Amino acid sequence: MDPESIYKSVVEKDNQYVMPTYGRKPLLFTGGEGCRLIDIFGKEYIDCVAGIAVNATGYSNQKLVNAIKEQAEQLIHISNYYYNIPQANAAEKLVQITGLSKVFFCNSGAEANDGAMKLAKLHTKKNSFISTNNAFHGRTIGSLGATANIKYRDPFVPLVKPATFVNYGDASAIEKAVTDDIAGVILEPLQGEGGVNVSNAEYLKEVREICDKKDLVLIFDEVQTGFGRTGKWFCKDHYNVQPDILTMAKAIGGGLPMGAFAACESLSFEKGEHGTTFGGSPLVCAASLAVMETIEEDNLLENAANMGQYFIEKLSKMERNDVVNIRGMGLMIGIELNHECGYFMDAAAEKGVLLNVTAGNVIRLIPPLTISKEEVDRVVEVIDSIVRPN
Ligand SMILES: *Cc1c(COP(=O)(O)O)cnc(C)c1O
């Protein structure tokens, strides 16, 4: 079949058989290399979406592909009733890079947050959480309770106990919101879906102190900010603030569905208190190890920090007069415009750049950590060239 027919048939089947939750773009990709994706017609794109901060090591990374191939040949899945070589090694590595004590493996970010909240409830014997406005923690019944956007939460609200939401960046608001039933505080050290909102050391340190003082469990959701996205292993490393529980997903498995959370020594589930069929399978753990090793061997933390800085410098020189603010850390960058900018996604794709928009008016750039200067230059050129419609 020719590309046009394949494209048409995929769109038809998708429309007919897949629940229309995503509002798809008219794009169909078949492969990629590094930061570049190729669509069915052979057109090349620089990808600043990276599967939503998942594809940290870039497309067709040979070390990752080989690790998955070799593990698939050997053993894909085994029950958690048994020991598992890649899982033990991935756990050791995660403990090393998080500075926490023990790990639980699950399959997504929402599940990681669910598990973290279960763990906090179990240890404090309390039920509620404090979360922040604009926070995104996932879409399961549990994690939705801590997700701020009422568009996601309201239709399901009798099923979850929503957190108490306070303004992001305001530590005293957290202190004021503490009641006898609060088990913990959950927050992203840098909000992603909420519009790339950067916090600061003072805020996070104060929140840490409040949690210590009031015996609350502090959960950092680093699902999006983890694994080098901000130029360090975790965003918390910029601030030297250690949570009690750290949740991870997105980039952790190199694109395989995987999540995890790590907790401090005093917080652990015991036998039978939590579990999942797929969590920590040999396959995803082998992929995760390859991702972590690649980040180290290819100096991707350094590249993310350097290219992030270069990106922001270049973006700041754009001629656009509709830019309110450019912010971010490492390769998690937001460009806030003074108007809704959803149209940017299609306009940039037309010119060979993939990006997405959060919070309505913030262009978000979260490319693979391998991006080069030349690619950054091209992305900025394209963003600069997109004119505001009327
Ligand atoms: C994406 C995301 C989640 C949810 O992860 P899923 O794997 O989609 O369940 C949770 N928290 C943050 C900060 C995220 O960016």
From TrEMBL:
The modification N6-(pyridoxal phosphate)lysine is found at residue 250. Coiled coil: none annotated. Keywords: Amino-acid biosynthesis, Aminotransferase, Arginine biosynthesis, Cytoplasm, Pyridoxal phosphate, Transferase. N(2)-acetyl-L-ornithine binds at residues 139, 276. It is an enzyme of class 2 (transferase). Its EC number is 2.6.1.11. Its main location: cytoplasm. One of its GO terms (molecular function) is pyridoxal phosphate binding. It comes from the Archaea. Pathway: Amino-acid biosynthesis; L-arginine biosynthesis; N(2)-acetyl-L-ornithine from L-glutamate: step 4/4. One of its GO terms (cellular component) is cytoplasm. Homodimer. NCBIfam families: argD (TIGR00707), PRK01278.1 (NF002325), PRK03244.1 (NF002874). May also have succinyldiaminopimelate aminotransferase activity, thus carrying out the corresponding step in lysine biosynthesis. This is Acetylornithine aminotransferase. It comes from Methanimicrococcus hongohii.
